[in-house]
């Protein structure tokens, strides 16, 4: 079974995380029984389950990028103001 990243796991709700852990346990058991055909189905279910958390992670990244851009724009304006004051 493929685990999702720690960042994604951190953004799962309590219910999603409980379901994720249960599905991982079932999938691991199926793999140990060499039932890879069924483990594949469980992995697909896990992939669907974690999609909302992946979107939340992307949203956090976009918000961070926007904040960084606003900070850099403010610094650029500040530097331009200092240059104008020195002239």
UniProtKB/TrEMBL annotation:
UniProt protein name: Uncharacterized protein
